[in-house]
Amino acid sequence: MSEFRLDPTTREWVIIASERAKRPRDLMSRAPHPQPEAHLTECPFCPGNEEQTTNETASYPDPATGLWRVRVFENKFPAVSPDGLADRVEDHPLALSVKGVGMHEVVVESALHNRLLGEMEDDEIFDVVRAYRDRLRELHTQHFVRQVIIFKNHGVSAGTSLEHPHSQIVATPVVPRYRRHQYDVAVQHFDERGRNLYLDIVEFELERSVRVIRENTSFVEIHPYASRRPFETWIIPKTQRASFAEVSDEELRQFGGALRDSLHGLLVGLNNPDFNHILYTGALGDENEPHFCWHLRVYPRLTAVAGFEIGSGIHINSSVPEDTAQFMRGVVSSK
Amino acid sequence: MSEFRLDPTTREWVIIASERAKRPRDLMSRAPHPQPEAHLTECPFCPGNEEQTTNETASYPDPATGLWRVRVFENKFPAVSPDGLADRVEDHPLALSVKGVGMHEVVVESALHNRLLGEMEDDEIFDVVRAYRDRLRELHTQHFVRQVIIFKNHGVSAGTSLEHPHSQIVATPVVPRYRRHQYDVAVQHFDERGRNLYLDIVEFELERSVRVIRENTSFVEIHPYASRRPFETWIIPKTQRASFAEVSDEELRQFGGALRDSLHGLLVGLNNPDFNHILYTGALGDENEPHFCWHLRVYPRLTAVAGFEIGSGIHINSSVPEDTAQFMRGVVSSK
Predict the structure, then answer these.
(1) Is B54 helix (H, G, I), strand (E, B) or coil?
(2) Angle B249-269/B122-139 helices, nearest 10 degrees?
(3) Which of A123, B70, B89, B250 has the most other CB atoms within 10 Å of its CB?
(4) Which of B13, B154, B175, B203 would you mutate first to test chain A, the one with the most A CBs within 10 A?
């Protein structure tokens, strides 16, 4: 029989539909592996085509060559752009708007067209997550920014059309209601229990161990209790910081390794599935709050989101997180 | 420049990204049209294969033949099932669960394998929406039911694998947090403004007219102010009822016609795109409340939901609802 489980970070139910359970092998992607070419002349993100992507905001060189290996610039087709003021306009009580003020950046993760995060060396992925943090710090100084969303779309079904590995950073002049809600849940937990919600989840999951994939000195990788999708994966730090902007270089190195290992597991275990990953970090001004804790979630796109999910907000997950975690531990140990 | 707009029914922002705007023609589906065969021997929903779909709960005959033309039965692979009690189990403060108690039904919308809702005669679609209402009334009498979600997945990207036109009904033992939130927003509007939120939206949209596709005596069809996706469509009644269970046969006839016309517009104007539609109705016990109003939303699946949407709850809509409404009025008038 299936089971409703409550996500302790959002207070949303999910349905773990064991009767519909698919074996991990049935969920494996049939996506083509990345092409062997290192650089493509027609790819706007490959070296040599930098003039196609203007307004560079950051760049990290490869120490061996001095050429960039991570590069950040403004999205050519931005959802928001840094012009004007984020004043609210109420044309009617039912029509409240704000100009699309903000910043929309692309983080090209490697100079190599076919270099996936899950296959990177420690130094390479360190530069990617360092770019995340450095841009977050910089964007927090802009007058129009209230929240920064850092995310990655990998594969067509995850919403990207460009193959060259890249992440995106969007700074918005509003705090999204969903993020505010997540934050409020963490505050309520803190007020009631006197402890940080995310550190409590780390403690709970390490104690139970069935949903843990692995841990290092600073991070835990789990398939959460109320996973919304098959192989949903959270990477949570063991040290509480509300904002990712506050993370040290040493923590970044550990985080990069944890992210690489997690994505490598998906790459090998599920044959390079489409996925999104999202960094959850506090809104501007919450840096020193004890309530929230930054973390990263990976959502593989193995099954469709249908009318039931859209209409109810309840996801039906055809996999049991305890089973997928066991499968993924097997992938890890057979490396 | 793009614009953030606030959805007055959820208080969520969306981004109307006019810089990324696609023309309606660019969004047209390349999906194959339904096959010409009327009945397929291998389709479990076609007449002659009824033994493959057991536990029939309702059936509506074609007056001409006496054979069923709408048929409702339990889903063979249910997300929830009617056994046991919906007692909460708290294994740990971070692990609250409920057994998957509920009901999961399939509504086969026609005996014909290739009969789309958008092409139906008045009498045919009346039986479909009548099945929705009748099953809702019946499910509300079950002890385990708190909320009923009625929805349709049309096409692979919308989450269905079976081509034969069908809807689904899921009765859950919990009120989804997202539905509760929507209801709370309507209550707050009522408390503050002294009027029903949805009737206010109808009045506002009819007054402005730019987002209205059409209306009949009982319903208005609009592309909402803060559309989350291109061609998102709402059908809202002009008479307030919190629950769809309270709708009369005469209103049902008008609603069926409005739904058919709306889906016909998508079918013709966008070449049979994948879509979901969802009926929003009050939770059990809210039938006589003045705050909420039942309605239906159609979400065409023309663009991908990516990491930004998952991570923020803010949708980036590459179309402007005023433009898509104008396009759709052109489709209507050229019929």
Answers:
(1) coil
(2) 120
(3) B70
(4) B13
Cα–Cα distance measured from residue B181 to residue B297, given in angstroms and rounded to the nearest whole number:
17
- Taking residue B51's Cβ as centre, other Cβ atoms within 10 Å add up to 7
B150 pLDDT above the threshold of 80: yes
Question: Would the CB atoms of B307 and A173 count as touching at under 8 Å?
Answer: no
- Given an 8 Å threshold on Cβ–Cβ distance, is B310 in contact with A77? no
Q: What mean pLDDT is predicted for residues A241-267? A: 97
Q: Say if residues A271 and A24 touch (Cβ distance below 8 Å).
A: no
Give the structural domain span for B48. 3-333
A211 in a domain, yes or no? Answer: yes
Q: Mean per-residue pLDDT for B1-9?
A: 96
pLDDT at A176: 96
With respect to residue A19, please indicate whether it lies within any of the assigned structural domains.
no
Looking at the predicted structure, is the pLDDT value of residue B270 above 60? yes
Q: How far apart are CA B179 and CA B146, in angstroms?
A: 11
Pairing outcome for strands B12-16 and B56-61: unpaired
Provide the number of structural domains found in chain B.
1
Q: Which residues of B275-291 are buried (b: 16+ CB within 10 A; e: fewer)?
A: bbbbbbbbbbebeebeb
**How far apart are alpha carbons A157 and A274 in whole angstroms?**
6
The mean-pLDDT minimum among A123-127, A157-161, B178-182 falls in A157-161
Largest interatomic CA distance in chain A: 61
CA distance B197 to chain A (A): 9
Burial of residue B50 (number of CB atoms within 10 Å: 0-12, 13-18, 19+):
middle
| B94: nearest CB among A78, A174, A204 | A204
- ipTM of this predicted complex? 0.95
pLDDT > 70? residue B33: no
Give the CATH number for residue B26: 3.30.428.10
Q: How many CB atoms lie within 10 A of CB B34?
A: 17
Q: Residue A224 domain-assigned?
A: yes
Structural domain contains residue A272: yes
The pTM (predicted TM-score) of the whole model is 0.95
CB A56 within 8 A of CB A105: no
Per cent of chain B over pLDDT 90 is 86
Q: What does the pLDDT read at residue B286?
A: 84
Sign (positive or negative) of CA dihedral B109, B110, B111, B114: negative
What local confidence, expressed as pLDDT, does residue A3 receive?
A: 96
| Element holding B271 (H helix, E strand) | none
**Mean pLDDT across the stretch A214-227?**
97
Say if strands B315-317 and B12-16 run parallel, antiparallel, or are unpaired. Answer: parallel
What's the pLDDT at B282?
A: 92
Which pLDDT score, from 0 to 100, does residue A33 have? 62
B265 and B258 in contact (C-beta within 8 Å)? no
From chain B residues 19-58, the ones with a CB under 8 A of any chain A CB are: 19-20
Which phi-psi region, left, alpha or beta, contains residue A137 (left: φ > 0; alpha: ψ -120 to 50)?
alpha
